[in-house]
Amino acid sequence: MHSHTRKLLTVITEAALESTLVRDLDRLNAHGYTITDARGKGSRGVRDAGWEANSNIRIEIVCDAETATAIASYLREHYYDDYAMILFMSNIDVLRSEKF
Amino acid sequence: MIDPIILFFLLGAVAGLLRSELRLPAAVYEFVSIVLLLAIGLKGGVELAKQPFASLLPHMLAVIAMGFVLTLVAFPVLRYLGRFTRADAASIAAHYGSVSVGTFAVVVAYLGSRQIAFEEHMPLLLVMLEVPAILVGIVLARGLSRETRWKSVAHEVFLGKGIVLLLGGLLIGWAAGPEGLKPIEPLFFDLFKGFLAVFLLEMGLITAKQLGSLRLYGPFLIAFGIGMPLFSALVGVGLGWTLDLSVGGTAILATLAASASYIAVPAAMRISVPEANPTLSLSAALGITFPFNVLLGIPIYYGLAEWVHTFARG
Fold first, then answer.
1. Containing structural domain, residue A52
2. Is A21 exposed, middle or buried (0-12, 13-18, 19+ CB in 10 A)?
3. Which of A15, A39, A44, B113 could disulfide-pair with A55, CB 3.0 to 4.6 Å?
4. B278–A81 C-beta distance less than 8 A
């Protein structure tokens, strides 16, 4: 079975940003993304999703390296200062390269 | 006798302070708040059908003006006495100029259990008071800058959960009338207090969590969290009296003025004024003002309303 290398970009941030981020991702050529609710603790304190203003989401995007870098730098520039946001990238193997 | 729903709030707060494992699933909290919002809307809608819209217009405009004024009063106090940054002061001011539906539900239950009548179009005024503070807050933080994306602000403000459900409930109640609502009454009206009790249990838990961060921000925020609602309640009582509302209606208007938003405004501010620290406004609104209003404020505001009305009658 032949597989292709792609990037998995994971963003963990405030739920309040969801609709804005989704718009950004579409504009930055992400072909798809998966959003899940998340909770945890970080430099901005415990965010345990007890209610809406205090909940986090995790967005996962599988894309090529170029798109991943573009998204990452856009997010860093626009949201890092004011929002609770972390972002990391990893290499993954996918089977259907045309999807990503 | 203390109202049992208040005891639920205290139970949540104590459980939270003792770090109990108790937590309501987010979906349950969401559901309960949806039911409460719809119930409040429906009830107002039924009554709205009975009065000509034109007679309500002066009340609506007066309440909108009150929303502007309260925010504009709070801002300089926070900026110059509290020495907050411009963004923080604007954001906190917007929270206090807007309303909390939870507090509204508690004052309705408070009056209900004492069988005190009030004007039934209060939910409409609740909706009116929610919005102006958000707009003022954004302008105070940003100025009238071209960068503000008013389209997304408007979307956030008018299509937020609270406004959609309240207005939707009002319209459904208005269209269906009392007879039409009979079949769904058991869920929305008969169970109202039960839902409110569960809601307040969760609010108690949330409040307890805010207290930790309050210690960081010191006495000014605590004083503001109690002083501002007392001042706003006076404005509310004055306006209620001027508009010739009943004692119950005046007490509700005072409570609306005194309450601080913790759902619609935080969401809008997070998007429009991201540099404002959300912890500041939320710990004030939820950690101090909400419990203060629920435990002490509402009886005080009712007492004020009663006093003004007896006094005015001579």
1. 4-93
2. buried
3. A15
4. no
Between chain A and chain B, the number of residue pairs with CB atoms below 8 A apart is 43
Identify the DSSP state of A7. E
Note the pLDDT tens digit of each residue in B247-288.
999 999 999 999 999 888 888 888 888 889 888 888 899 989
Rounded distance, CA B7 to CA B269, Å? Answer: 32
CB contact under 8 A, A16 and B270: yes
- Closest-CA residue of A relative to B207 is A50
Angle at A60 between CA A59 and CA A66, to 5 degrees: 115
Name the residue among B30, B209, B275 with its Cβ closest to that of A82.
Answer: B275
**d(C-alpha B248, C-alpha B104), whole Å:** 12
How do residues A5-32 score in pLDDT, each as one tens digit?
999 999 999 888 898 899 999 999 898 9
pTM of the model: 0.88
- Count of domains observed in chain A: 1
pLDDT at position B114 over 80: yes
- A68 neighbors A9 (Cβ within 8 angstroms): yes
- Could you tell me if residue A98 is inside a domain? no
Report, as an integer, the average pLDDT of B202-231. 88
CA distance A92 to chain B (A): 33
**Min CA distance, A46 vs chain B (Å)?**
10
Q: How far is B123 from chain A (nearest CA, A)?
A: 23
If pLDDT is split at 50, 70 and 90, which confidence band does B304 have? very high
Vertex B7 angle, CA B206 and B1, to 5°: 150
Instruction: Check if the beta carbon of residue B118 is closer than 8 Å to that of residue B111.
Output: yes
Which amino acid, residue A44?
Answer: R
Residue A100 lies in a domain: no
Q: Which residue of A has its CA nearest to B160?
A: A16
Residues B19-60 have pLDDT tens digits of: 898 888 888 888 999 999 999 999 888 888 888 878 889 999
Task: Indicate the residue of B23, B271, B275 with minimum beta-carbon distance to A50.
Answer: B23
Q: What is the pLDDT of residue B161?
A: 83
B89 shares contact with chain A (CB less than 8 Å): no
Which member of A50, A52, A79 has the closest CB to residue B205?
A: A50
Q: How confident is the model at residue B154 (pLDDT cuts 50, 70, 90)?
A: confident
Interface residues of A toward B, Cβ cutoff 8 Å, are 14, 16-17, 20, 37, 45, 48-53, 55, 79, 81-83
- The CATH number of the domain holding residue A45 is 3.30.70.120
Does A99 reside within a domain? no
Would an 8 Å CB–CB cutoff place B162 in contact with chain A? no
Mean pLDDT of chain A: 87
